[in-house]
Amino acid sequence: MLPNKAQAARRLFLQRLGVFSAATALPALLSSTVDAQSSTKGVSSAQRWGLLIDTSKCASGCDACVRGCHEEHGINSTGNEHTDAQWIRKIDLQNNLSGQKSSLPMMCQHCESAPCVDVCPTGASFKRADGIVLVNKHTCIGCRYCVMACPYKARSFIHEPISDQKSWAPRGQGTVESCTLCVHRIDAEKDQQPACAVACTDEAHSAILFGDLNDPDSDIVKAMANQPASQVRSDLQLNTGVRYVKL
Fold this sequence. Notes:
alpha+beta, Alpha-Beta Plaits, two-stranded antiparallel ribbon, 31% helix
């Protein structure tokens, strides 16, 4: 048992240490908050960005969308399927009843009710007002709860140090990442088609259409009106921003 004076001194030391820790942590927290807020500057719920993917135009074996995404964001493949980043990947499906086969790209589905956002303990996973789901690299602690929560296996954990990064696609060892819908293009108000859609069009497939799901005059909404589009795992009622035709 410490003498009363020693106890009082110990308490004072711990109190001062707590104040010092909070003071030193505050700038970092404020910086993270500012960075997160800057990524939503000028963003409005008037838009909801999404993708419409026509699986009948998506060729099996074609990975143009994957290559386009990797080039745009500086993702280098090492050939290790367990540790390589997969912002977008190609999968082949077969309907067991009809035998119909489909090839399609799978990426973050930018859910309205995003499980990754719900389980994130730091708020690093967040959804912008325009429906784009992102990861704040400054507050991601690499716990990977979001990786486990995502029903689409659309998130990757960065295991190795990253070099030669693109200024518009910050990446960091020990953090989680996923498709951003090429948010830097959207925010720059220039070519709003994400890299995957551009690459698909360049291959003359034109299977990926990007646009505003809230705009009745947009090409994506008109296309969805002409042919039924479905969600992957619609039973989860996540209201995804990525829809598929002839799935």
